[in-house]
Amino acid sequence: MSYVVYVDLLVACLAAExxxxxxxxxxxxxxxxxxxxxxxxxxxxxxxxxxxxxxxxVSKGNFLIPxxxxxxxxxxxxxxxxxxxxxxxxxxxxxxLVYLLALLAGGIGYWLSSMQVSRIxxxxxxxxAVLIVAEVGWGLLHERFWESxxxxxLIVEIDNKRQIIRALIDSGNELIEPxxxxxxIIVEKKVLKGLVPTEVMESLEHMNIISDAAGFDxxxxxxxxxPFRSVGKESxxxxxxxxxxxxxxxxxxxxxxxxxxxxxxxxxxSHRGDYQALIHxxxxxxxxxxxxxxxx
Length: 296
Description:
- By secondary structure, this protein is of the alpha+beta class.
- The chain has 2 domains: 7-145; 150-294, no CATH class.
- Helix content is 46%, strand content 21%.
């Protein structure tokens, strides 16, 4: 028996399969809080698409392959995709979620194909189902949307040196330095090493006295201790610095922020490394009509 193959339809099916596999791998990794390999999601989705193409050729052709072999390959393929997309140590955490999401997508696709609906819905339905489950169950879309679009670039200047930092707009950062009343921008210590001498940074990290060799008078005038309260810790003190200037990159210009304090955080603020600082939305509103200059 011969079959007519419509190339445009085949390409559309392969593209839909690629993005479905990509979404499933992405959602599985996000839910399990596992970081994919560089380019891993892409190559994992490519493997899934190639398997889908092979399955179509076998099912529509005259290839005599035992049903048991096809079933075994179908069961093992998600594991190969996860191994390609993530590290081997992540297999146990990510694979069950990928199986669950794949079963969901496959069930929705099969149900839509049995209904009298447009072909476009048969192709897109599984994608929509995965996205809805990811958002309703774990809020992944909302979180990623906020982290992508709720970020700004800051330029911190100290002693004629500057560092560009990616900051997340965080309404939960309510820290204010009690003496001056200035808002505190939380910044990872490691990103300021180019602005602050190593000896000074180490002294701040261990709350030691800054030695004369490090320029005690100069850096001690910049030092600020900010008391804070947080969940799980009744009280504490955060080491901070007074920068010369902090600019916010906005619409091709650098908008100067009002007086702020840089609070130094030892741990990473984002497990994905998407941002290195936390800034309160009030600071963005306060830049309206402020000093501006063209970007260098």
